[in-house]
Amino acid sequence: MYSVLILILIPLISSILAFVSSKKWAGIIAVGASLISLFYFLILISGFNAMHEMTNNDSFKWIPGTSITFHVGMDASSIIMSLLTLLVIPLSLIATFTKKEEKKSSYYGLMLLTLSALLGFFSAQNPLTFYLFFEITLIPIYFIVLMYGGVERKKAVFEFFIYTVFGSLIMLAGLIFMHYKLGANQILDWSNLYYFTFDLNTQYWIFAALFIAFAIKSPLFPFHSWQVKLYSQADRHTMMIIAGILSKMGVYGLLRFNFVFPDALQQLSPYLIPLCIFGVIYGALIAWRQTDITKLLAYSSLSHLGLITAAILSNDITAQQGSLFQMFSHGLVAAALFFVADVLIQRTDEQSIMASSGLAKDNPRIAVYFFIIVLAAIGLPMTSGFIGEFYMLWGMTKVNIWYGVLGGLTIILSAIYMLRFYQKSMFGEAIGNNKISLPLRLNEEYVFIIVVILVITLGVFPKTWIDLSKFAVSQFINVKSNQ
């Protein structure tokens, strides 16, 4: 019998080995453990049956004498986000093999701790287990940025820490209040919450607490002031994980909890969706004017996460289906874009989008890979980015045509700033940097090839993922609608 708990423990135990190993062996252990975790995960979900809703549960009493339990398992949404985690983290680890840093062992050990915490977070099957891993993920990321970030990393990571802890405390208060209202003797589990309806006033308080926590974590406008600082100071391989996976924790949490406060969501969404759409446009316009690669990608992420959140808040099954698909797609694409940034900056020693001007002539392979990733980022048909955006905008339009029209501006604006980024970094007059013509290293080639295959395959053959995402969100909506 395969166990989700074992999946979480594989990288956790491996992290100890990485910490005490040499730099060379720590990297090998980290990549090996992440790939073993991926292989074990595929075996784990091979018997998944949507009709049974969940597979391979592990549940036991967390605090003796109470109804509080530790509960992990794999349902449809857990499978989607866990697979994203198990794809992005190995790719980011493989990418680090070109980096020369001190304390490499600690870097890999912390990466494996992050992998373990993220798997626990996405497989959590009750709010308190969810909260436990929500908190734990902060710890290794904090130390990775603090130890391996840029010149102003201390200020950036401190602001990130303060914001996130503040949001976490608000979430904890909301969960305690939820448990109190549910009843001290009731197990605070998704299955119990499915069939329990809180009064409207209680829903307002729970929604407010959780929404603020998730808006800070993603982040969403206007809770994003920490984002640009952290994105520009964190190691770019770490940013593959932060932008690719950690930024999805907030929107994933909102999707998981939305069935708890259906009435409050219906009452408040007409005010929050326009705010999210404003964040979409705001982030895109600021990204358009950026010349720093990491800042451009930070504001781009802010814009896309705003659209995903608006789709979730619309409470339409099509829009929410698209939001879950887009979490996966944007996770891959955002990680790929930060990998592109790393490839360019390693060859120019600058973060300006114009520093690599003329690269397409000297290094056409990078230009081709980069172009395919850009197409996925702007949502071109036949790429993964198109599927999620199409479903989100379609669902939002069914709720309110203006949501779809204004949300659709993200397609136009993202095309403008991403193509501008591509044009200025790949074409134009070469600046004369001798390193610009350095061919792709073998590990860089592997990362590019895998990402390109994934975004094209998801765009051309999306049915399995569409069906899985539809089932994931329909089980939330149908339970409440059938009460």
Please describe the structure with a list of short key phrases separated by commas or semicolons:
two-stranded antiparallel sheet, mainly alpha, disordered C terminus, globular, 483 residues, 75% helix, 2 domains
* Major β-sheet profile: 2 strands, antiparallel
Number of H/I helices: 21
How many runs of DSSP E, i.e. beta strands? 2
Mean pLDDT: 87
Strand order of the largest sheet: 1-2
What is the global morphology? globular
Ranges where pLDDT stays below 50 over 5 or more residues in a row are: 479-483
**Helix and strand run:** HHEEHHHHHHHHHHHHHHHHHHH
Number of domains: 2
Helix content: over 70%
Structural class: mainly alpha
Report how far apart the termini are: 34 Å
Radius of gyration: 21 Å
Q: How much of the sequence is in beta strands?
A: under 5%
Q: Secondary-structure map with pairings?
A:
Elements: H1 4-19, H2 23-45, E1 54-61, E2 69-75, H3 76-95, H4 104-123, H5 127-136, H6 138-148, H7 153-182, H8 190-194, H9 200-217, H10 225-233, H11 236-257, H12 262-288, H13 293-313, H14 317-348, H15 359-362, H16 364-377, H17 384-399, H18 401-407, H19 409-426, H20 442-460, H21 463-481
Antiparallel strand pairs: 1-2
